[in-house]
């Protein structure tokens, strides 16, 4: 629980209040606490921690302590350092009166609450009663007349279940998915060796999000969730499904069960029920695993750290802009945007889900929850003319295989023949093409790299050979999965249509690169995995200096000229600076950064972290910056440098990348199917319009198709980056959290929006 109090009447009184109706803490909460405290201090406020949730607010005294900038250092690694607890006292008016008294004595009229719908509902009730509670306190003589008769509330949702309506993602969910997928990947290995079936129970008493996204991310054979009970006779369908999979050559079966799974009659479906069914009916060696509280622990993912940080900053901004008549709001995530929604609207929709499930209106529950896309995606992939070719282009990255898998399987479901092209445009030119079937991509979701093989060569080198291959293999459409080379290659093929009529076929570029530099998309497949790799490596680097004071680490990241990885890793790992090409810097800026670290070493925090994008400056290289810091910090701190290199491209894909890649593959095939119908004329395919060759990208809140020709003007081809990049707006947050005195642009005010259904785009 953190409370911020303004020391100046010119500021709105601001507060951050962490309170959970259940004594549970989630990965990523510390990031929200850290951001809120530091941005609060940046605006000139005093900041207080209130320990142990609402109970600490009721008890007051030592539970409410002054927070400092240093008190939130080195706390990004997980859980919540200020505790949380169940509180029966706060449920009574007497308890809330005590809480109000403790706030009034400190001059606080604003609260920020992290919790679920119960905690947030309690906060809103507290706000509603505020003037009445003050009147009671004045009447009892406990306080003098208080100048402010209103209480401002802003909420952030912490829950691994992702069960709060109005936000695409709650704090802690992505980290829980990381824990689950790590275990599923490990179990898959032993299951394949022994040809077993494994049944895994994940958390989700009333919400099946974790189970559903896990099933998508690992290619499970069956999933049971509370919101969508299986039809009558599901036992026979399940056994038939498992038998079919074994008949296709599969050596294992994975079944995911949410702990609250039920049948159409409301009877619980347990792991033991399913194990007994599969063992007796099919004779398959079946094992069960209940993951339990391991899902709540561990180090938070990069996504949760950035999410918590962004929500914390937005919460402070909401309090800065709050007026007496401003309704309580909750900071939510919509696509890649932090938005504000009326708190009680979100709570009401969340309660409507519970009501729909209790009344047996399960389809309504899924729609209200916002998981329609996830559910339809799973149903499409879990069950089994046009020729569509798939090619990987550019550097390999985690998630490419997941995109190929979903593209292949949905293409087959649409009745198409899918052709796998090996080794990029080289393979397309030289006929390294073969049909690929359903079972050929089994298990690809969790594999890193590119199973098809990929190269950086571009089609202009052998355009005539490519046109001949398209004719020879009767290719009607192409899915190009890759980075900036994929974008340029697709553009070259479009521009060559005038000379080669064979290239007049629909094509779609699916961005997949760790650099996140493909025009037309805010996110690329593979970026989240690389970001987690960098963040975890920075954590270990910082921990290595736990026993060594006054040390600064210089870390070089990949990304070409694009500074996305360096910036977002800086946010996630608490870096002191991140040098990127997009934000010009000079020797004076380096001098300021060194002086900043010298001052930092005088505090209780004796470590520093500097990130440098690999091509941020041709002259200020990693070696130069290392030498400069070493020389200027002599006698105050010493330096170490690390070049992370190609480890950022490797590893198994993160849950986000698996889910994102799966949906991108599906979307691309469905779009091509519709486009092929439009382009079919007189027995042949002819696509020559600009909108027949597009980039599929995530823009703000949705997946959109944008013509390659239109994106050409939005691209800096020399530096291989888009001219406009959304994440640059987050750079000031990085500097504020590192305690730099900069001016934060607050002229752009965020409006309070209304609840809409979740997009399901962000896992």
UniProtKB/TrEMBL annotation:
Catalysis performed (reactions): beta-D-fructose 6-phosphate + ATP = beta-D-fructose 1,6-bisphosphate + ADP + H(+)
Entry keyword Disulfide bond: no
Keyword flag Nucleus: no
Pathway: Carbohydrate degradation; glycolysis; D-glyceraldehyde 3-phosphate and glycerone phosphate from D-glucose: step 3/4
Entry GO CC: 6-phosphofructokinase complex; membrane
EC number(s) stated in the UniProt entry for this protein: 2.7.1.11
UniProt GO MF annotations: 6-phosphofructokinase activity; AMP binding; ATP binding; fructose-6-phosphate binding; identical protein binding; metal ion binding; monosaccharide binding
Family: Belongs to the phosphofructokinase type A (PFKA) family. ATP-dependent PFK group I subfamily. Eukaryotic two domain clade "E" sub-subfamily.
NCBIfam families assigned to the protein according to its UniProt record, in alphabetical order: 6PF1K_euk
Name this polypeptide is given: 6-phosphofructokinase
Organism field: Sander lucioperca
């Amino acid at each position: 629980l953190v409370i911020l109090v303004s020391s100046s009447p010119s500021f709105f009184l601001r507060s951050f209040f962490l309170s959970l109706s259940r004594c549970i803490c989630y990965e990523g909460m510390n990031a929200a606490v850290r951001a809120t405290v530091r941005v609060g201090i940046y605006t000139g406020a005093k900041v207080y921690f209130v320990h142990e949730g609402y109970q600490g607010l009721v008890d007051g005294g030592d539970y409410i302590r002054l927070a400092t900038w240093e008190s939130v250092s080195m706390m990004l690694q997980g859980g919540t350092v200020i505790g949380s607890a169940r509180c029966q006292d706060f449920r009574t008016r007497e308890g809330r009166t005590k809480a109000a008294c403790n706030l009034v004595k400190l001059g606080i009229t604003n609260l920020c609450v992290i919790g679920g719908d119960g905690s947030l509902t309690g906060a809103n009730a507290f706000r509603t009663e505020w003037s009445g509670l003050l009147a009671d306190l004045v009447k009892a003589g406990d306080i003098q007349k208080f100048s402010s008769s209103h209480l401002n509330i802003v909420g952030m949702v912490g829950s691994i279940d992702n069960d709060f309506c109005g936000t695409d993602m709650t704090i802690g969910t992505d980290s829980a998915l990381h824990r689950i997928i790590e275990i599923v990947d490990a179990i898959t290995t032993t299951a394949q060796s022994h040809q077993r079936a494994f049944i895994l129970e994940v958390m989700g008493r009333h919400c099946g999000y974790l189970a559903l996204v896990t099933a998508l991310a690992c290619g499970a054979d069956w999933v049971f969730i509370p919101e969508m009970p299986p039809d009558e006779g599901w036992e026979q369908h399940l056994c038939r499904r498992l038998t079919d999979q074994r008949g296709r050559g599969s050596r294992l079966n994975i079944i995911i069960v949410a702990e609250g799974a039920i049948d159409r009659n409301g009877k619980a479906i347990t792991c033991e029920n399913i194990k007994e069914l599969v063992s007796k009916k099919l004779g398959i060696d079946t094992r069960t695993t209940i993951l339990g509280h391991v899902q709540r622990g561990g180090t938070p993912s990069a996504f949760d750290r950035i999410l918590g940080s962004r929500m914390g900053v937005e919460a402070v901004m909401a309090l800065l802009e709050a007026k007496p008549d401003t309704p309580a709001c909750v900071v939510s995530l919509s696509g890649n945007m932090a938005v504000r929604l009326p708190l009680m609207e979100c709570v009401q929709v969340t309660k409507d889900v519970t009501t729909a499930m209790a009344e047996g209106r399960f389809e309504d529950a899924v729609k209200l929850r916002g998981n329609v896309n996830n559910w339809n995606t799973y149903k499409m992939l879990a069950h089994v003319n046009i020729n569509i070719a798939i090619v990987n282009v550019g550097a390999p990255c985690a998630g490419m295989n997941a995109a190929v898998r979903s593209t292949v399987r949905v293409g087959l479901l649409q009745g198409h023949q899918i052709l796998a092209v090996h080794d990029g445009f080289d393979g397309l030119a030289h006929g390294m093409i073969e049909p690929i079937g359903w079972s050929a991509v089994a298990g690809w979701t969790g594999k890193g790299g590119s199973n098809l093989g990929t190269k950086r060569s571009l089609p202009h080198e052998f355009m005539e050979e490519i046109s001949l291959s398209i004719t020879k293999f009767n290719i009607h459409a192409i899915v190009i999965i890759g980075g900036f080379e994929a974008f340029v290659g697709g553009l070259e093929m479009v521009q060559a249509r005038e000379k080669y009529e064979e290239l007049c076929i629909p094509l779609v570029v699916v961005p997949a690169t760790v650099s996140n530099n493909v025009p037309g998309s805010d996110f690329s497949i593979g970026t989240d995995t690389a970001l987690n790799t960098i963040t975890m490596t920075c954590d270990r680097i910082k921990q290595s200096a736990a026993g060594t004071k006054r040390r600064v680490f210089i870390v070089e990241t990949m990304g070409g000229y694009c500074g996305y990885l360096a910036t977002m890793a800086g946010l996630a790992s608490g870096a002191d600076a991140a040098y990127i090409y997009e934000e010009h810097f000079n020797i004076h800026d380096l001098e300021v950064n060194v002086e900043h670290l010298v001052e930092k070493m005088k505090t209780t925090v004796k470590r520093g972290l500097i990130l440098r994008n690999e091509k941020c400056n041709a002259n200020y290289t990693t070696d130069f910056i290392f030498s400069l810091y070493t020389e200027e910090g002599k006698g105050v701190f010493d330096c170490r440098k690390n070049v992370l290199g190609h480890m950022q491209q490797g590893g198994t894909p993160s849950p986000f990348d698996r889910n994102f890649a799966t949906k991108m593959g599906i979307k691309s095939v469905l779009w091509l199917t519709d486009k092929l119908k439009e382009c079919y004329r007189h027995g042949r395919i002819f696509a020559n319009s600009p909108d027949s060759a597009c980039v599929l990208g995530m823009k703000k809140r949705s997946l959109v198709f944008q013509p390659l020709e239109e994106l050409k003007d939005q691209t800096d081809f020399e530096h291989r980056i888009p001219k406009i990049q959304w994440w640059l707006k987050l750079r000031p947050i990085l500097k504020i959290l590192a305690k730099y005195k900069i001016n934060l642009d607050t002229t752009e005010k965020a409006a309070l929006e209304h609840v809409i259904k979740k997009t399901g785009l962000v896992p």
